[in-house]
Design a protein that fits this description.
The protein is an alpha/beta fold. The protein is built from 19 helices and 13 strands. The strands form three sheets. The chain has an eight-stranded parallel beta barrel with strand order 6-7-8-9-10-11-12-13, surrounded by six helices.
Length: 487
């Protein structure tokens, strides 16, 4: 089990960041920032000192022409010129979620012109309260390359778990404050006040989370339209259903919508990226692209512009369940309405009939969505619709999402994406099995499969043997004799 007081492992080793920050009136002045990366083989020298710079958020810095350390490192990873990435962040077309209090963060950028990122949902529930298990999921997710972790805990000491994540985990950390409010206040839903909802948002910002899903798009007007539309599966978003029920019981406006400016002030002060939640995302194929979904998206587009006016970074959340033929058009509609803000999709799941295999239905939709402009895929596991995922489910969901993301990156022409495939194809041509394992998205599984059925001849596999087309073509083109049955 993971040591709850220890650091998290990344794919390259141990990562730690030490910061010295003075926080004045919502602005950050950085006197020095020391980056230390300890790999298993060597230590890289500390980075250079950063000059005194005043800015509130990554967007604010980009608009002022300030090259932050986070932006510089993201540009290096994405093979971008810093000035080009700075322009995308300034325009809101890329975000770098980086709460100033998340001091061990390995920054990553999210945007349609960047590599497609994946998010892993986890957290405790009433029926599954094992914090150690959830921390093991975090470690596994980071080791397997997930750029983001969302803590959806809805039971127990949620704040302790959340603080452990931001103190120890290098991945981007996201949360859904609506869930936590219900747990934290532990009183009837209708008795939670508007101010108490907002106080939870501030608490999460103070705890260092990098982005928050806020279900702000479903206001009273949208709710009335939803009731008239009579969907097949109603509202399937947990946060959306909670705030809808609260509005119905109290007769009040959605406090996140009514007090949106206060939320923006919190996000600006801590540099929290706002993930505008889709309360009305379709929960089945029949409800896809209906009036409730589109009306909420229009509201999110309006709120995006208001957030940008305060230099708050924004992600837009999207569907959901959706047939293949509607995915591309939905991506284009979102890009138009929300002016290119990064799109974060759950799936989309392209059919409703595959419980136990929804990591596959989501990967199919996710690949098409990302190829059509989505920036951020929320993983889906085989346990979707059935139970809280276990460690094996988490791995299956991550691998399916990574495959979808990479396939989309190839289609979009993302820098360096196709090179990985070229190297794998070269290794296959050479029948270089060790190199193939090294390049595999899941080396452990690839090696295990080969070792489970070893061939008679090491330069073949148990499927083809001497019929191996690669082996025989290599021989004949080298002027050798190919004699399949006589060998």
């Amino acid at each position: 089990m993971h040591d709850m007081n220890g650091p998290f492992l990344t794919g390259m080793g141990l990562f730690c960041v030490l910061k010295y920050i003075r926080h004045d009136a919502g602005k950050r002045t950085r006197f020095n920032r020391l980056h230390v990366k300890i790999t298993f083989n060597h230590m890289r020298a500390p980075g250079e000192e950063e000059e005194n710079m005043d800015y509130t958020t990554q967007m604010d810095a980009a608009r002022k022409g300030i090259l932050t350390e986070e932006l510089k490192r993201v540009a290096d990873k994405e093979l971008f010129e810093p000035a080009e990435l700075m322009r995308l962040v300034a325009e809101g077309k890329a975000v770098i979620p980086a709460n100033r209090l998340h001091t061990c963060l390995e920054p990553n950028g999210i945007g349609s012109r960047l590599k497609t990122k994946i998010n892993v949902n986890l957290g405790t529930s009433r029926d599954c309260k094992d914090l150690e298990m959830e921390l093991q999921k975090v470690n596994d997710a980071v080791r397997m390359g997930a750029e983001s972790i969302m803590d959806l805990s809805s039971w127990g000491d949620t704040r302790t778990f959340r603080r452990k994540l931001t103190a120890q985990c290098p991945a981007i950390i996201g949360t859904v404050p609506i869930y936590d409010a219900v747990v934290y206040y532990h009183k009837p839903l209708k008795d939670i006040t508007s101010q108490e909802w907002l106080d939870i948002v501030r608490m999460h910002a103070e705890d260092g989370v990098d982005f928050m899903t806020i279900h702000v798009g479903i206001n009273r007007q949208t709710a009335e339209r939803f009731k008239k539309a009579k969907r097949l599966t109603n509202i399937v978003s947990r946060g959306g259903s909670i705030i809808f029920a609260w509005m119905e019981m109290t007769g009040k406006e959605n406090p996140f919508y009514e007090h949106f400016e206060k939320i923006l002030d919190i996000c600006q002060a801590y540099d929290v990226t706002l993930s505008l939640g889709d309360a009305c995302r379709p929960g089945c194929i029949e409800d896809a692209s209906d009036i409730s979904q589109i009306e909420e998206l229009v509201t999110l587009g309006e709120l995006t512009r208001r957030a940008w006016e305060k230099n708050v970074q924004v992600i837009i959340e999207g569907p959901g369940h959706m047939p293949l033929d509607q995915i591309q058009s939905n991506m284009k509609i979102q890009q138009t309405i929300c002016q290119g803000a990064p799109f974060y999709v759950l799936g989309p799941l392209v059919t409703d009939i595959a419980p136990g295999y929804d990591h596959i239905t989501a990967a199919i939709g996710g690949a098409l969505a990302a190829a059509s402009g989505a920036s951020f895929l929320c993983y889906v596991t085989p346990a979707e619709h059935l139970r809280l995922p276990d460690l094996d489910d988490v791995k299956e969901g991550i691998m399916a999402s990574k495959i979808a993301a990479h396939a989309a990156d190839i289609a979009k022409g993302i820098k360096g994406a196709a090179q990985w495939d070229r190297e794998m194809s070269t290794a296959r041509k050479k029948l270089d099995w060790e190199r193939m394992f090294e390049l595999s998205i899941d080396p452990e599984k690839a090696r295990k499969y080969r070792e489970s059925a070893k061939p008679e001849k090491e330069d073949t596999c148990s499927m083809c043997g001497n019929f191996c087309a690669v082996k025989n073509m290599n021989r004949i083109l080298d002027g050798e004799i190919v004699s399949i049955f006589d060998e």
